[in-house]
Amino acid sequence: MIRQTSVSVGGVRSLVREAGPGESTEAVVFVHGNPGSGEDWLDLLGRVGSFTRAIAPDMPGYGKADRPRSFEYTVAAYARHLGGLLDALHVQRAHLVLHDFGGPWGLTWASDHPGAVASLTLFNVGVLPGYRWHKFARIWRTPVLGELMQLLTTRRSFGMFLNADNPKPFPRAFVDRMYADLDAGTKRAILKLYRSTNDLGGLVEHVAGKLGPLHVPTLVLWGTNDAYLPVRFAEEQRRFFDVRELRRMPGCGHWPFIDDPEGAAEPVVRFLRERLAAATPAR
Predict the structure, then answer these.
(1) What is the dihedral sign for C-alpha 120, 108, 123, 186?
(2) Which residue in 51, 121, 168, 253 is a FRET match for 159, CA 20 to 30 A apart?
(3) Using CA atoms, how far apart are residues 265 and 262, in angstroms rounded to an integer?
């Protein structure tokens, strides 16, 4: 059963979805990207919660989280917020499952808390050497043009653009829920986040380099038809992490866990079970 609670960090409230034993100090932590929310992970959250503690927060500006103008909306600020959430939830050891901008947020937190990182699961994100912004990011980063695009985004255009860049149509409920969360506060957060992140590739490579000596066990899953973060980056993860499995997911786009829930769940559940078993002392 999935539970919901609210956690505030520095006065900024996040909705947190949780499954499994709430008292455990070791947890699988799902971090969404842009646009998205903790609700992106409901299927995996339920599956993983059947055998361990699993947590999926809404990050500031997204989902049901607060959208204060005073929040910085930088990668560093999101990493600090994630750390505050984990502290408030008494999580001392985290198995991070990251997607999209959740990658830079989670990896930045991990690089500052190396002893607390148990494993990494990377969905279409990770080290991105030489990365160049995708078409929407370039618009969002451009003053006036970004505001105009956000102002003119309708339910129809949002769904059209989202589906146009995916190899298969998204479930209507997924698109409707994303658009319902896309209010003025979220649009402001998107513009501030992208404009504050000048070199995404260099930023992630820097923090990943700090994690490299730890040989963090890592699972990499990448949709082969990702229009925003090309699958060519999948192999790059071996340079920085102890990649136990790298799975390219044919026919999937930027959200492979939505395009192919079963195909995503099988390796994730198996990997996390193995990591939890390895961390449990033999009796």
Answers:
(1) positive
(2) 121
(3) 5
